[in-house]
Specification:
It holds the Pfam family DUF2378. Residues 1-10 have a biased composition (Polar residues). This protein has 227 residues and is α+β, with helices and mostly antiparallel strands. Among the domains are: 36-96, no CATH class; 118-213, H-NOX domain (Alpha-Beta Complex), CATH 3.90.1520. It is built from seven helices and six strands. The strands form two sheets. A four-stranded antiparallel β-sheet has the order 3-4-6-5, with helices on one face. Strand 3 (152-157) and strand 4 (161-166) form a beta hairpin. Helix 2 (56-65) packs antiparallel against helix 3 and helix 3 packs across helix 4. The termini are far apart.
Length: 227
């Protein structure tokens, strides 16, 4: 799958630094059956990764949808709000891309932003040690960490390929998850990665994944003593 062109990072971030803090008096609905995306997911994508590239107008649109980047993040956001946030970001950051390519790039950026957090650094360090196959075997843990509703199932796993079912792609299309999977496998040392949605119904999707294992670096030779 081709990655869409990357937007310039030279734009400057507006507004005060965003912090994760207590919720404002208004409102994330706390019903037990509500699908919620946790603040760490919002922070990874919209603060850590995309923050400098979201300009004034898009910040206004995000604020109208429920995400005020000049204020502390709420503990969680409704899934429908998150989907709206993705739509705004797709157009704002990747205006020349197709909807699918823009969502794919957002999925990649999500992992890149997650890697900048303390929890993300530890998680990605573990992934790099497990390799692509081990990462696929534990992929359900990655999807459950950022929300209260998702689940993943590995239907087939071979040395260089897998079939993965995802309960909820948490977006308007499956390509955000495809980008997430691609960047995660890249962090696990995979190369020549292909993540293809082969079925998409309601909010669930099935992906066919293939990769080549990256060559391992030889151990560094000890430095000669300087005398």
């Amino acid at each position: 799958m081709d990655r869409g062109p990357q937007a310039s990072t030279s734009e400057r971030m507006e507004g005060r630094p965003t912090r994760v803090g207590l919720p404002r008096p208004a409102k994330v609905v706390g019903m037990p059956n509500e699908k919620l995306v946790f603040a760490q997911s919002v922070e990874a994508l919209f603060v850590r990764s995309l923050g400098p590239r979201i300009m004034r107008e898009e910040r206004r649109r995000l604020r109208e949808a429920g995400l005020d980047l000049s204020e502390p993040l709420r503990p969680a956001y409704l899934l429908e709000q998150w989907r709206t946030f993705l739509r705004v970001a797709a157009v704002a950051v990747f205006p020349s891309n197709s909807t699918e390519a823009a969502h794919f790039a957002l999925g990649e950026h999500f992992v890149q932003g997650y890697r900048q957090t303390a929890v993300g650094r530890a998680s990605m360090s573990l992934i790099s040690q497990m390799g692509p196959r081990g990462t696929i075997e534990r992929i359900s843990h990655n999807f459950r960490a950022g929300n209260n509703f998702n689940a993943a199932r590995v239907d087939e796993l071979k040395d260089r390929s897998a079939t993965l079912w995802l309960k909820d792609v948490a977006a308007d299309n499956p390509f955000f998850s495809a980008g997430f999977l691609t960047e995660t496998l890249r962090g696990a040392g995979a190369q020549d990665i292909r993540v293809e949605p082969v079925a998409f119904e309601d909010c669930s999707a099935t992906f066919r994944i293939s990769w080549a294992q990256a060559a391992r670096r030889p151990p560094s030779a000890p430095h000669a003593a300087v005398g």
